[in-house]
Amino acid sequence: MQSARDIDLVNELRAQPDEMEWLEFKANNADPEMIGLRCSALSNAARMVGRETAFMLWGIEDGSHRVMGTSFRPESEKIGKQPLQLWLAQRLQPSIAFTFREISHPDGRVVLLEIPAATGAPVCFNGTPYIRIGSATPKLTDYPERYQALIDRMRPYRWEGGIARQYVSGDDVLALLDYSQYFRLTKQPLPDNRQGIFEKLVADRLVAKDVGERWNITNLGAILFANRLSEFDDGISRKAIRFVAYEGKTRATTVKHRHDGQKGYAVGFEGLVAYLNDLQPKNEHIGAALRESHSMFPELAIRELVANAMIHQDMTITGAGPLIELFSDRMEISNPGIPLVQTDRMVDLPPRSRNEALASLMRRMNFCEEQGSGLDKVIELVELHQLPAPWFRAENHATQVVLYGPRMFADMSPDERVRACYFHAVFKFLSGDKMKNATLCARLGIASKNAAQASAVIKHAQEANLIRVADPEHPRAGYVPGWA
Question: What keywords sit in the KW lines (predicted)?
Answer without folding.
Answer: ATP-binding, Nucleotide-binding
